[in-house]
Amino acid sequence: MKSLFTFILLFVMSQTLSAQNNFKQKQLTFERVKTAYTQKWAGLKEELRQKGFKDKFKAHLEAYKSEGKLEVWLKNSNQAKYTLFKTYDFSAHSGILGPKTKKDDLQTPEGIYFIDRFNPESRFYLSLRINYPNAVDLLRSGQQDPGSDIYIHGNQLTVGCIPLTDDKIKEVYVIALEASNNGQVQIPVHIFPFRMTKENMNKKTAIFPQHKVFWKTLQLAYDNFKKP
């Protein structure tokens, strides 16, 4: 019985790895993905080596709307905590502080998400879709259409997404694809209104008191991720 269980487990693992490898190979059939690897992967691998990251790593993305920053955090398979790898500037902004509540409100969402699609033929060069709207977003939107199709993408235009320029999305796309190929099923994307320090919370909630309760819940996720 034990040997049968072991066989089944190994078979499932092999099928999962095969699917992940096939996904990367399929992505590499697209010209923009091939270009991204040609231009960026060698340099990224050297940066990874210098900062102590091995071939198989997991990724976590943190975005801050007010500061206009996207942080890429990584960890090796034998590590419990993520370490900051690189920070990218937003190339444009849309809306104001506060969550997205409906279609065409120009707001960038705020909340806890994950990447649910790699788009190698995006209108904005390359793009990574997040799973907006999540359950909290749907509850908040009520009977309104909450909108959809929120991406981290190239270009310098946005109506609620997170743009990084075509050059920078190449790096983020490659990192995310490598993490996925390493076996990471979901790559978290946490989008915060600002860096949620006590000082910032006091300042921003004085201006946007209607978001205080929601932001307090986001602050828990922010603090939990940042604690040593």
From TrEMBL:
Lineage summary: Bacteria, Pseudomonadati, Bacteroidota, Sphingobacteriia, Sphingobacteriales
InterPro entries found in the cross-reference section: LD_TPept_cat_dom, Transpep_catalytic_dom
Pathway: Cell wall biogenesis; peptidoglycan biosynthesis
Protein's GO biological process: cell wall organization; peptidoglycan biosynthetic process; regulation of cell shape
Molecular function as annotated in GO: carboxypeptidase activity; transferase activity
Keyword Transferase appears in the UniProt entry: yes
Record-annotated membrane-spanning stretches: none
Signal peptide: 1-19
Name of the protein: Membrane protein
Record key words, sorted: Cell shape, Cell wall biogenesis/degradation, Peptidoglycan synthesis, Signal, Transferase
Family the entry assigns: Belongs to the YkuD family.
Active site residues of this protein: H153, C161
Domain L,D-TPase catalytic span(s) in chain numbering: 59-192
PANTHER family documented for this protein: L,D-TRANSPEPTIDASE YAFK-RELATED, LD-TRANSPEPTIDASE
